[in-house]
Structures are given as C-alpha cells and as structure tokens.
Amino acid sequence: MSLFRRQASSKANGKLTRLFFASDFHGSQRIFRKFVNAAKHYEADVLVMGGDVVGKLAIPVIREGNGRFRAHLMGKTERLEGQDDLKGFEERLGTLGFYSKIMDADEYDEIRSDTAAVDRLFHDLARERLALWIELAETRLAGTGVRWFVMGGNDDDPEVLELLKDVNTESMVFCEGKEVAIDDHHTMISVGFSNRTPWKTPREIDDNDLGTMIEELADKVADTEHAIFNLHVPPVDSTLDTCPMLDWNTDPPTQIVKAGQVVLHGAGSEAVRRAIETHQPLLSLHGHIHESGGVVKIGRTTAVNPGSEYGEGVLRGCLLTLAKDEIKSYQLTAG
Amino acid sequence: MAVAAAKPEVFTRKSSGLVRVMSPYSAFIYNILTMGLIFPWTYLWAPGALPGGRLVWGILLAMIFEIPIALAYVWLSTALPRSGGDYVFQSRVFGGGIGFSIVMSGFVIWILQWVALSGWLLSYLGFASLFLGLGGTMGNPTLTSIGVWFTTPWGIIIVSILNAFLAMLLLVSGFKNYVKFQYVMWYATLLSFGLMLYLFFSATPEIFAQKLNDFVVASGGVPNFYQTGIDAAKAANIDLNPSFSLLATLLVAPIAWTSLQWATYSAQQNGEIKGARSFQNQLIIIIGSLIVTGLLLAALAAALEHAIGTEFLYVAGAGYWAALDAGKFNGVFLWPNIIAMALAGSPIIVVLISLGYILNAFQIVNNCYIGMTRVMVAMSLDRLLPEWVSRVSDKFHTPVNAHIAYFLASIPVILVYNLWGQWTALTLGVTFACGYVFVITALAGALMPYRAKALYDASPGAVYKLGNIPLVTIFGLIGAAVGAVMVLMFMFYSALGLTSVLAYQVVFGVLAVSIIWYFLAKMIQRSRGINVEYAFKEIPPE
Fold this sequence. Notes:
The complex is a heterodimer.
Chain A: H1 8-12, E1 17-22, H2 29-41, E2 46-49, E3 57-65, E4 68-73, E5 76-81, H3 82-96, E6 99-103, H4 105-112, H5 115-141, E7 147-150, H6 158-165, E8 172-174, E9 179-181, E10 187-191, H7 207-218, E11 227-231, E12 242-244, E13 246-247, E14 254-255, E15 257-258, E16 261-262, E17 264-266, H8 270-279, E18 283-285, E19 294-298, E20 301-305, E21 316-322, E22 327-334
Parallel strand pairs in A: 1-2, 2-7, 3-6, 7-8, 10-11, 11-18, 18-20
Antiparallel strand pairs in A: 1-21, 3-4, 4-5, 9-10, 12-17, 13-14, 15-16, 19-20, 21-22
Helix pairs in contact in A: 2-5, 5-6, 7-8
Chain B: E1 2-4, E2 11-13, H1 24-35, H2 41-49, H3 55-79, H4 85-94, H5 96-109, H6 111-138, H7 141-149, H8 153-172, H9 175-201, H10 205-218, H11 225-235, H12 246-260, H13 279-321, E3 328-329, E4 332-333, H14 336-344, H15 347-381, H16 400-419, H17 429-451, H18 453-457, E5 465-466, E6 469-470, H19 471-492, H20 501-527
Antiparallel strand pairs in B: 1-2, 3-4, 5-6
C-alpha cells in the first residue's frame, strides 16, 4: 500500500520543509492573525509574506459628543452608540484592512485640507499596525522554530517599510533586497518593487530597472537551481497576471472597453519572466494581481500566485513541501 | 502620496485597485439567458401530465418559491464574491466532503445532461422548427422533410455534438469572445420572444385554427388538422376542459423550476462580476433576473392559452405526454415556436423566431461549460480532481483541459439521451439533481452566521436581522424547505418522471460515485502529504 503511505517520516528526518506563502494583506488584521496561526494550522516550518502590507484607507471616526461617533464606510454613514459599537466597527475595519482614528470634527477638517498631514496620518497608523503585527508574531512564533519572512510591495510606502528593516526579533526576517537561507538547501531572494502601473504607487519603477534590480540579486545566488525567487510582480503573460487593461490617463484609472467588453491583458513584468526563464529557480513566489491566483510551470520553475481576498477576511495562500531538489507537493489554500 | 477625499469622510492613498470584468448588467443578462426563455417543457408537459393545473399560476408559484433560495444566494454572494459559487459556499460552511459530493454529483455530472438537452433544444426547437416553419410558410415539403430530419435521433446527436464542440472552441478562445457574443444572443432571444408574445396576444383560437390548418396543408399534411386533433383527443378520453386542481397547479411549479432555478447561476462567476460584493448589485442580478424571467414566462403561458384556447392546449399537451399522434405535426410536438410560426405565416418571422431559439440553445451549452469548468478548476486546485484539469493554457489563458474533458464526457450522455428511450424519462433528473444543490446551498446560507461566523460578520449582509435572527438564516431555511419539497415531488409524483427504479439508480448512483471519489481523492492526496481539508478549513483568526 505504498500509494497511501504518509510522508511524515521524511519530514521527521528533516528532509522536507513546509513553506506557507501568502501575499497582499493590505493592512488586514484578520488576515495577518490567520497568517501567523497558519504555521500551527498547516504545520508549516517557514512563513513567507509577500508584499503590499499597508492598508489603503483610513477612516476618521468623528466624535459627536455624549459617547457617540460617526464614520463613513462603504458609501454609508454609520452612527456608533458607545464603546461596544465602536469596538465592533473597528474590528470590521481591521478585517477590511482599513485604519481608523478617533478625532474631533475640527481635527478632521484640519487634516483633510493638508496633504502632508494625511500622509503623516497614514504612516503613523501603518507603522502602529505593523508594530502590533510584529509583536503578535513574536509572541506566537518565538521558540517554535518557525520564521516568517516579509518584504514590501509596490503599494507600501518606503517610510513605513523602514520600520521592518530595523526589527530584531527571533521570528521575523525582513528579506527584501538580499539572499536569505530558508533551510539547509534553499535560499531566497526578494524584490518587492513592481513595473509601472496606472495607479502610480509608491514603489514602482521602469521594467528594465526592475530587471537590473533582480539580476543584481540573482548574480549573488551561488545555486539558483535550489533558489526561490520571491518577486512581488508575477511574470508577464503567465496567467498569474491576467487583469483588465486600464486607461492610464484617467484618475482613478478606468477599464478599457472595446466592442462592448472589458479588455483583459497580462499586467505582469517582462523582466520577472526573463529572470525566471534565465535562472530557472526551483520556485518563484508572486502576488500583486489579486484575481489571478494559480500555479504554473515556466520551464522547471514552479511559479505561484495565491491571489488575495483580504477584504473578505479569507487568507489565500500556497502550502509547499520542499525536498532538496524538488517541490514534493503544493496546495492552494483558502483559510 | 495620500489625499484627503472631499466627500465621503475618508482618507485614501495611492494604491492599486484592480477591477473585475463582467458588469452587473451582463450578469443580469447572463442569468436571464441561463434561465432560458425558450425552455418549452412547461407549456406541453404540464397540460399533458397535470390536467386542471394552471400554467400561469404554476410558473408564478415557482418564481415565488425560488425567491427565498435566491435571497440566500444574494447573502452568500456578497459574503464570498468568488468564482465557484455553490462549491465554494457549501465547502466553506459544511466542509469539503459535502461541498464536493453535492456539487460534483448535482452539478458537474448531471449538467452533462444539460449539454445533451441544449443540443436537443438547438436541433429540435431551433433547426427543425426553422425548416418546418419555412416549409409551412413557403409551401415547400422538401424543407419540411429537412426539418423532420433534425428531430431524428442521429440528427439531434450530430447537432448536439457540434453544438458542444463549437461552444468549447469559443470558450477556449477566451471568455471575452463569449461575452461579446452574449449580446447578440440576448437581443436575438428577446426579439424572438417578443414576436411570439405579439403573435399569441393578437390571435384568437378561431384565427389560430384557420392558420394552423393552412400551415399544415402547406407543409404537405392533411387538411383540418385543428379539429382532427380535438376529436382524436376526445376519442382518447382526454379531458379538454378539466376543472381547476390545486395539486396539479402546485405540481406545475417543479416543472417551471427547470427554468427559474437558474436565477442564481451567476454566482459561479462572482469572481468576475464588478461590484459582486454589493448587496444592491446582487439583488438586481439574482432577484431582478428571477422576477423578470418569471413574469415573462407567465406572460408567454397566458398568451399561448389566449391564442390557441384551453382545449387545444390540452391537445398539444397530449401530443407530448400521451403520444397522441393527432397532437403532433409531422411527428413534431406543437411547441410554442411552431405555433407562433403557424400564426405568422411569414418566412421572415420564422427565421427571426428560430434565430432566437438557435442562439439561446447555443448560449445554454456555453453556460454549462462556463459554470462547470470553473467548478472543476476550483476542485482541481483543491486537489480533488487531477492537477491537469486546472492547467491554464499559455496561449489562450483559459483552462483548455477542463473544457476538453467536459466536452468528451458529454458525448456518451448525448448518445444515451437520444438513443436509449428510457433515458428521456430522466429529462427532469437534472432539475432534481441541480435542485438538491440549490437546497443545500440555501441551507449553507441559513447556517453561515453560525458555521462561518467570521465570514458572515465581515459581509455586508450581516447588518440585516429580524430581532436577533440574521435574515439570511430565515430566508435560507424557508428556501431550503420549499426547495426540498419541490425536489421530493420529483421522487413521489410520476408526472414529474423520476419515480422509476432506473431513476433512483441513476440519481443515487451518481451521488454515491461522487462521495466515493471524494474519499479516494482525499486518501490519495494524504499519501502525498496533502491534506485536502486545508483548502476549505478556516484558520482561527484570533
């Protein structure tokens, strides 16, 4: 009955590494808590968190006196009566990846008229949330032997990512821009920048420059055959990057419609595809395009984009079992 | 760079926010086309098998019965706006075992019968009616005999296989090509439907009798067809003026449900619908399309009875249900489109009506592929179907293998449906099987607030309650109960065709195969170090 023999014995002998990868949390509290708990839930040895960790929206919760508040969410003004309502509302925002700050109407008017103040508010709230995440992860993962690797994405402000670079904890490794060891056999390089997007996000560059950035890192890898390329953007035209084509001349960008239908295209990076085709790493990990989750083969490389449903509170991920020379198994998850 | 929004009271920052492909309007159209304005069974099956049943009321009852089920789908779709629909909903709330077994049996396997049925619709109601209509309106018996060929088993088989093959090619070439073509199908179907309504409402039984007689003679048939049919039905002891029967009217509803149960099919594509998380959008897409289609079908029933009279409606029904030869025209049942063609007497109208039927039938086979290949890909990614099923073609960016597999699997079903007489008795088997999928999903909606609390709490529908009871629980329970009654009717009333030993063997055999498949797949994957439960089980968010 070798067909049904479990592989647990191999794992016990230290031959296999279980790696859990997920990306594009966009500030969602629920998703991050699930991500940390995924180590135990999936019996993973290594957690890798792709980029785009920062949220997109901050909701001012405005004091109206007598313990009442108002806040605007999803097109509706919510009236909050007391602390219980407020707590429930903040939990909902946390799931959606939104930040919140309680303020008076005057303070809100003052901030909204000052772009720099809005920037500062975002940076403060994002750093505050990341600090909470790091603390939570350390509490749960320190002493377990599980490490979580994290990098930024194109949506993440460099000022916020500075916080991650300075962290010195047992469990967390900020892995962007360097080669890190995943286990005895595999190393990983990480690049969180993207090629240009119509959204003009904080960390996007020309595709050629992205290629140069990846090549500089890849050149330092002694053994690309056992390497993992953790590149936020998926390779172009890989089906991990399919999304509607957008008009770059409108703000916000709008979808291009031809003959009565939305035009789809591959929004990935040519440089990323070139790097994978040239170096043929064992595995490449991607995010960025939330709606195009999947796994494809590019030559010998297994390329993964688990997709993202952070707004629904669903942690999309990929659980991989790595042997020295091969990927023994992979599984897309929705936890 | 962050910016302050003038209104509403939020702060936003520059970040990517990609959009979905299908507009809510397209999804609304998709549902109406899926419900099939052309499905003909209610109009002949019900009068034939259920004397005393009121067609219009039966259709409206089916629409009303479907509303709570559809509402449960609205809640589920806004909570889980992902492609995969029922499979995702059920596996999220009940776990992979139930989700896979129910959807694999009730949908993936049984909808192969819809591939066969759409081929039958295309051949019988599309091409056969086109040539019969042209033969009758142009006085050309050769065209009539071509039309008759399309009603023969091999005529239907050839058309069905080509129908499935062309749909596969269209969808493999890219979903966007289908969406482009959908508008053509939509307007052709509407035109065809509108013409029939006009012809029926503007006719009287007397006018119809004359025009039908002329039409039959021009096709090479015998004179005085109308009166001959009535006389033959009376001679066969068929009551042409039965008194009202509440039970018969209630039993019309499960037949009409063949169409209206598909109001929720857009849920399979939630991942591609813009604003799928919006409650308002889902109400318009699902409930809106249900009500519009229900009212249109009821209107067609009223118009048909207005045009041909109650007596002849029972003659046409006897042609279908009691094999009354005089209730058939050249061996073809008197479907609403044939009757409309006889009333029109114009080859142009014949072509326009037929085009709607041809394109709506083709759209239905497309729907089978669109919905089921997505479910199959989701099952494959969950490691319950082989990995090659979910492989996406580099060239076409579509799951080509899933399409090919579904096409190949449909061929034996097409053959058995058209060559084995007993199998046609299982025509509504697919309504029964899909019915139990919808019932379990409605139940999943009812239990979502309790079994998937975190998911429910994060959904926009969580704010709607009656006292402390979530509205989705109330609608889901009512929907599941009503749906279960309709499903059970199939098994206990011979008029609905699923009371034979063969029917029980097929229905429960398919379910058993799916359950066994799940446990085998789970065991095999475990031997490879993969726990398939990880695909469904929520990680504690605490």
